[in-house]
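Sequence and structure are kept together here, with a separate record for every protein. A complete record is shown below as an example:
=====
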Amino acid sequence: MAYHLEDPENRIIVSYKGVVYDVKEYFHEHPGGSDLIEELLGKEIDEKFEEAEHTKTARKIFDNFPIVGTLAAREPSTNSESDDGVKGLDGYNLDQNLAKKLNIDYSKGIIWQLLTKDIPLEEYRQFVNEPKNFVGKDSKHVKMFDNWFCEVNSKTPWWMIPLAYIPISCYLIYMSEGPAWWRLLCWGAGVFSWTVIEYFLHRFIFHGEDVFMPYLPQNNFMYVFHFCLHGIHHAFPEDSLRLVFPPFLGHIILYFVFLKPLRSALPADIAFAFMLGIL
């Protein structure tokens, strides 16, 4: 049964498990598009929400919405559990989010806190694998460092990528030798090689919290290494300035890990075109 809810204050409201929420601040941020919410405005969303098989993280988003009231026709769920073992609404309100379990203060740099706190591996794994949302917040960028220089250089706006790598690409094209078909072949080999390398990096290193960390002694430096390398993308997927490596780190890796060994091992006509494919 669907209830149509009239709101005299022009809030954007929906009802979930008997509780009426104002979702105005989240309306245009819904990952599936605002049109999916628009057709449910002023109604109960329980059935559609469950049909979409939302994750536990998605259910936690309700904690961020202002509560307008409850439906008089039914009591709010307090201790129910769905088939997947997820508690009802009040259960989530009582269950503090994972960041609070670690006592992460988002007004301070996260890196120093990860270095100095006593964090069990399981809590770190939960912390990085539970996406945090920024509903109702002006800034969607987390603070990694307290030092302003480190903080600024940990951010990479989209325009910095072409600015940093197009000149290097032009240099590699200029330095490539041989007929076009040969350079194209070497370039393709570089693309294929990086595809394989990135697959193994992503599976076994970037997701080290599930692969190698459980077999090593607990180490905060390992947490920080993993968080900077990849964990931040899972913990804070809305932070658009931490999607890729900062260029100055990328340049160092490209030169010492790839270009220099390639130049030592291969002829120039292969090395530069191969490196262009990797880049």
About this structure: The domain at 13-94 is CATH 3.10.120.10 (Flavocytochrome B2; Chain A, domain 1). Residues 1-6, 78-100 have pLDDT under 50 and may be disordered. The longest strand covers residues 13-16.
